[in-house]
Amino acid sequence: MSHHPYRTFRTTVARIIALSPHFTRITLQGDDLEHFGTDGLDQRIKLIIPFADGSITDVGQFDESQSMTEWYRRWRALPDEQRNPIRTYTIRSPRPQAREIDVDFVLHGTEGPASAWATAARVGDPLFVVGPDSRSEEQGGGIEWRPGAATSVLIAGDETATPAICSIVESLPADAVGEVCIEVPTEADALAISAPSGVNVRWLARGSGAHGVRLSAAVHEWGLRRAAAHRDAAVSEAALAEPEGDEILWEVPDAVDGGEYAWLAGEAGTITALRRHLVRDLGIDRRSVAFMGYWREGRAEAS
Asked: pTM higher than 0.85 for the full model?
């Protein structure tokens, strides 16, 4: 039997750990997770949130003969009251040999379905995870960290990118060099992270300030230090050219061999502005800047 690159896993909550005032780690378990195929990094998954009674509308998502495209089309056609919310997350730690995965949630009240579910979650509660199937011969995708042979890295994001950033940083080789900037709601939200000695990790507490201000300032500060060290560097006009318009919110090129590599993720407005700064103002080759607008302020993820 051939297997599609993605499948829906039935899981239940095994453990809940409060990491900080705004981060909670939920460990999910399920027999089928032995086939969960990923090495971690910034692997994206979909969470299908059950209704209050723990149920889910069956649109064929558990039929392994059907692709995600097929059942997702039927899900989109459902009336609102029958459509379980679906939200995008990243894996913090996969342990297929133990049939477990860790997902870190940002708790921001009960207005959003995922945060509401995580806030009320108890051991034994069901959750349905759409993720890569290790048995598939097709590439599942969903991993955007592609540094190639980069000699230095810049990683920047907000709390929504924090699980991916932590996983990426912990995967870096011991001789890695670079800067990591993470904006979080409060000082108490700075998490323990194991980074190579040559990688500087900065946790930026937002406090009462506007979203993205501290992250932007930190990246600009990094840019000033970089400029002082790259006064004579030259980049071709083609490498600096960008697509027409400013609506592009997601671009993940394969890194140019060697040199710098930047990975930016979080609120779309902040991240796209930082990407423009790196390319237009600092002259970094746009082919070495990956940026992902995970969400946009004032707009909920489509459900």
From this structure: yes
